[in-house]
């Protein structure tokens, strides 16, 4: 009898979600109804990024890399250039690596089996389930951040959703609620409901299609759930950006390895704040870059926040005369025109900084 009641409740819940999605959910998104490659790309881009932010990047990316073979054949640097500004660059590196695995192991066709999708770099259980549901209409449950919040409130599950025990409970609920058919519509509905109605702050419970069954709403504790993670104060670091300008060119170096901004072009950096006086900078630049400093301008400092730390950036715009043009090439650095630099694979704070320099400090 209990199982029958649970089944009836699941049918009611799924039916309400499906009906609501078809009437009020998001439609017309550029990846909806697309092939598996485009669905995969959208799901990777949507990790930790809002739909409105993703759409222009997605359209630009698929225009340049319309299919898996094209993506796999391109260099990582080019892929990062088209990802530049979207952040969390390991997603792009994993996407590129996965495309090459697909070429080698799946004859260039995106795999249909859940286990094969899950085995690709950068794809976790929820992302693999979303791809399976949208691309192949497989009956798979998702549990992204929005759905975790929705289910934590619906069942009034106390505890931080990132904890293993709590997450396991949420997965159990997500699996139990899956409908037998219309899985793709249901999955989109769960995403839409979490993103637009059951939001982190100011949820619109009066518009929720499953409000009648929501335990948190009934108990008046919607605002308290899901239980937030105990936040530790983020450590803070400092760095100096050395913006070496030689005529119309600026010096950038490519970060290597799996470090912050790995594979991207950045100004040379120092993990200390060096004095902005011309003599201190002249000594350093002559020693490490073999250039003669003409002028130094200290630009306004700014803060960039990563997931795990805050970075205070102190930019110095340094006009130089180059004595040995080969030195930069030999050390993984390159002189680039400012327009070329902004088209290269550079992180978002560097792009914004170069745009400000071009607007306020650059003479052609």
Q: What does this protein look like?
A:
It is built from 16 helices and eight strands. The chain has 364 residues and is α+β, with helices and mostly antiparallel strands. Strands 1, 2, 3, 4, 5, 6, 7 and 8 form an eight-stranded mixed beta sheet that branches.
How does the helix and strand content classify structurally? alpha+beta
Q: How do the SSEs run, as a string of H and E?
A: HHHHHHHHHHHHEEEEHEEEHEHH
| Helix count from the secondary structure assignment | 16
- Report the count of strand segments: 8
Helix content: 40-55%
Which ranges are low-confidence, i.e. pLDDT below 50, for 5 or more consecutive residues? Answer: none
Q: What is the molecular shape?
A: elongated
Question: How would you summarize this macromolecular structure in one to three sentences?
Answer:
This protein is α+β, with helices and mostly antiparallel strands. The chain is built from 16 helices and eight strands. The chain has helices at residues 2-24, 36-45, 51-64, 68-73, 76-83, 90-105, 114-118, 125-136, 145-154, 164-176, 183-196, 215-219, 278-289, 325-330, 338-343, 348-360, and strands at 236-246, 249-254, 265-266, 269-270, 291-298, 302-305, 310-322, 333-337.
């Amino acid at each position: 009898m209990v199982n029958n009641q649970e089944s009836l409740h699941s049918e009611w819940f799924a039916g309400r979600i499906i009906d609501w999605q078809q009437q009020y959910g998001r439609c017309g998104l550029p990846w909806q109804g697309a092939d598996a490659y485009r669905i995969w790309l959208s799901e990777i881009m949507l990790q930790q990024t809002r739909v409105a932010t993703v759409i222009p990047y997605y359209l630009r990316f698929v225009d340049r890399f319309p299919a898996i073979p094209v993506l796999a054949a391109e260099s990582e640097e080019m892929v990062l250039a088209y990802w530049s500004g979207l952040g969390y660059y390991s997603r792009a590196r994993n996407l590129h690596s996965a495309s090459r695995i697909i070429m080698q192991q799946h004859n260039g066709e995106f795999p249909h089996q859940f286990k094969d999708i899950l085995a690709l770099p950068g794809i976790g259980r929820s992302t693999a389930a979303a791809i399976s549901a949208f691309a192949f209409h497989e009956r798979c449950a998702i549990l992204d951040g929005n759905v975790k919040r929705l289910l934590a409130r619906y069942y009034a599950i106390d505890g931080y959703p990132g904890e293993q025990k709590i997450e396991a409970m949420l997965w159990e609920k997500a699996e139990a609620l899956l409908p037998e058919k219309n899985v793709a519509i249901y999955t989109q509905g769960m995403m839409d409901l979490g993103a637009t109605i059951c939001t982190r702050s100011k949820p619109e419970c009066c518009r929720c299609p499953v409000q009648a069954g929501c335990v948190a709403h009934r108990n008046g504790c919607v605002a308290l759930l899901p239980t937030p993670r105990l936040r530790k104060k983020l450590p803070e670091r400092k760095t100096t950006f050395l913006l070496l300008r030689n005529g119309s060119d600026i010096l950038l170096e490519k970060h290597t390895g799996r470090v912050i901004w790995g594979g991207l072009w950045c100004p040379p950096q120092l993990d200390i704040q060096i004095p902005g006086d011309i003599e201190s900078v002249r000594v350093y630049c002559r020693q490490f870059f073999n250039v003669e400093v003409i002028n130094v301008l200290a630009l306004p400092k700014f803060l960039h926040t990563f997931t795990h730390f805050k970075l205070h950036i102190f930019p110095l715009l340094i006009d130089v005369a180059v004595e040995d043009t080969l030195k930069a090439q030999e050390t993984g650095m390159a002189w680039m025109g400012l327009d070329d630099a902004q088209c290269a694979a550079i992180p978002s704070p560097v792009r914004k900084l170069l745009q400000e320099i071009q607007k306020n400090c650059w003479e052609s």
